Amino acid sequence: MSDPWKTVARRSTVVVLVLLLLADVAESIRVVWYRHQARTLSMQLNRLRSDRDALQYEYGRLLLEQATYADPHVVEARATEELGMRPLPVLRLIRGQPRTPNWPIMIERARQTPAQEPL
After folding, report:
1. Does residue 116 form part of some domain?
2. In angstroms, rounded to a whole number, what is the distance separating the alpha carbons of residues 47 and 41?
3. Which residue segment(s) compose the domain that 90 sits in?
4. Amino acid 15: pLDDT
5. From residue 37, how far is each of 31, 48, 74, 117 by CA, in Å?
6. pLDDT tens digit string along 51-105?
């Protein structure tokens, strides 16, 4: 007859080995899961960086376009060509007008006016 303690020891050794095997499998699954998450996040980060670079390029292009359209010569050219606008007649300053006692400087429209264009 076998010793009952040896049977218990064998059973407990088998149980411990099975538990260690299950823990090892669970840890392996956990490692695979976290590697998958890391790869997914890495791909997302690369995609977001590429989107950021594209947006920075577009922003720089828009800044250049804004600087171009903010130039007074470009504004005047577009206003005259596309909208048919004409600049106002030149104003001249007249000092010491007797009709304006509160203002030492009076603004008067120049006598020359541009020729009217037919409609």
Report:
1. no
2. 10
3. 4-109
4. 92
5. 10, 16, 53, 71
6. 999 999 999 999 999 998 888 888 888 888 998 888 776 555 555 555 555 554 5
Burial of 106 (0-12, 13-18, 19+ CB in 10 A): middle
DSSP state, residue 119: -
- Residue 3 has what DSSP assignment? -
Q: What is the DSSP string of 53-115?
A: HHHHHHHHHHHHHHHHHTSHHHHHHHHHHHS---PPPPEEEEE--TT-TT-SEEEEE-S--PP
Q: Report the distance separating Cα 115 and Cα 88, nearest Å.
A: 12
Q: Could you report the per-residue pLDDT of 42-52, keeping only the tens digit for each?
A: 999 999 999 99
Strands 91-95 vs 105-109: parallel, antiparallel or unpaired: antiparallel
Which is higher by pLDDT, 5 or 38? 38
Q: Is the residue at 99 inside a domain?
A: yes
Per the CB < 8 A criterion, the answer to whether 34 and 40 are in contact is: no
The answer to the question of residue 98 being in a domain is yes
